[in-house]
Every structure is written in C-alpha cells, then in structure tokens.
Write a structure and sequence with these properties.
The chain is α/β, with parallel strands linked by helices. It has 2 domains: 2-109, Zincin-like (2-Layer Sandwich); 112-236, Zincin-like (2-Layer Sandwich), CATH 3.30.2010. It contains 8 helices and 8 strands. A 3-stranded mixed β-sheet has the order 1-3-2, with helices on one face. A 3-stranded mixed β-sheet has the order 4-6-5, covered by helices on one side. Helix 3 crosses helix 4 (95-106). The longest helix is centred in the C-terminal third of the chain and has 20 residues, at 217-236.
Length: 239
C-alpha cells in the first residue's frame, strides 16, 4: 500500500512542484522531469543528470536512494531542490531545503551501529578521548578501498566513517596519521554542514578552526604526504 502511494504521489509531479516553487516565472514545459529511486546509493543520497532533448524538451533525471521512499513529501522536495539548483546554478533558500537539512543532520540518531571494525574502533576511541572528551557517539566504522586520494569520508545518512585501506596495519608513530584522518571525519559528524544560499558548506570556518587543534597538525600533514608517497611507490612495485 505504501509503495503504491509513493509511486502515485512522488513522481514527476514532485519535481515539477520543486521547479515551480524555485522558478515561478520559468516554463516547466521546457523540461522532461524524471524521478527514480535506486539501490546503488548510500542512504539518503542522490544525484541529478541533465540529459538530451526529448521532443524538444531537456530531460532532467533525479535519482535518489531507495531510503527516500516513504519519507515526507516536503523533505523530499528539499533534496530535489538542492540538486536542481546545481543544474540551474542558482542560490535560493526554501523551507523544504531547511527541512531536508535538519532531517539529514538528525537521521543518524535512528541508524543502527552494527558495523564497527575493531581496529578502527581503537583509533576512534583514541581520538574521541583526546579531542572530544569521549563525548562523540560511536558511528559505524569501516575500511574502504585502498585509495591514496580519498583517505576518509563521513556519510550522514548511514552515520558511517570510512577510512582508506592504505592505513590498514599502521603501527608506531604512524598511528598519528590515521588518527588525523579519523579526527577530520569526526569533525564532519560533530559540525555537520550548513546551507548558505542553496549551497551546502561542509568545511565552515568553525570546522577549519577545530581541525587546527590537532596536535602537531603541520608536522602530521607533512608526514602524511611522505607516507602516502612511499605507499604509492611500494604499491606500484607490488609490495
């Protein structure tokens, strides 16, 4: 019954509603709007694609995680409007976007914490005690791919910190390096993000000021660069 209601109510009608609210003087007929729900996204994520013309109208396809199915209409309007403004390059605030932002910031409360790697937990506990007085609630903690570029990430929808496998097995002084990456992702969990003129800001002034509190930050960043360079060389030769 729920799926049927979602299918009837949350389709191109939702997208057109978003468009008309953002751009009341523009002609929605110039576009073919599509809304799809996909299992390939992490919880509460999505994207938008601005495609080829269909009978003279531009196709704009919004793809959202299946986790959005059944979520309140106005909250879904918020993520659609957020994505829509990336396409049309505008900066407009709406109530729906505020609702979406508040939803994403608080959804972690209901997310199960049943995917916690023990090695990463030890790292998390170290950083939590030293920099956050042990007050930051444990998220899901997992290893990602062996990436030299994306060293870590925090997902609001799944309350999950992912750390690159390039740090797997680090010991001795090098634990400072994984602790630094963990600290950065924990700051995302603590500070969340804020929306300014329709754009999400994840590295605010407060975030950057807090990041500078990491002990010997400049030295650790230099050592991290050297560590990754050596890892790349070893990886190239299969070590």
């Amino acid at each position: 019954m729920v799926d049927k209601i979602v299918e009837n109510r949350f389709g191109s009608e939702l997208v057109e509603d978003c468009f008309n609210e953002l751009y009341p003087t523009k002609n929605a007929g110039l576009y073919v709007f599509e809304l799809k729900y996909s299992g390939r996204f992490s919880s509460y994520n999505g994207n938008v694609k601005y495609g080829k013309k269909v009978f003279g109208a531009k196709r704009v396809t919004f793809s959202l995680s299946k986790a959005w199915i059944g979520i309140d209409y106005d909250i879904q309007k918020g993520i659609i409007q957020h994505l829509m403004q990336k396409v049309f390059k505008t900066k407009i605030n709406t109530i729906s976007q505020d609702l979406y932002e508040n939803f994403v910031k608080n959804v972690h409360i209901a997310v199960p914490k049943n995917n916690v790697d023990e090695d990463l937990k030890r790292c998390y506990d170290r950083v939590n005690e030293k920099y956050f007085l042990g007050l930051v609630e444990m998220p899901n903690l997992v290893w990602g791919k062996k990436s030299f570029r994306k060293l870590g990430s925090y997902e609001y929808g799944t309350d999950k910190i992912t750390i690159s496998k390039v740090f797997e097995g680090v010991t001795g002084k090098d634990v400072d390096l994984i602790d630094f990456v963990m600290f950065h992702e924990m700051l995302h969990k603590v500070h969340k993000f804020k929306t300014i003129n329709g754009r999400s800001l994840h590295h605010s002034k407060k975030f950057k000021e807090a990041e500078a509190h990491f002990e010997s930050e400049e030295d650790v960043e230099k050592r991290l660069t050297k560590f990754l360079r050596l890892k790349k060389i070893k990886n190239a030769f299969g070590f």
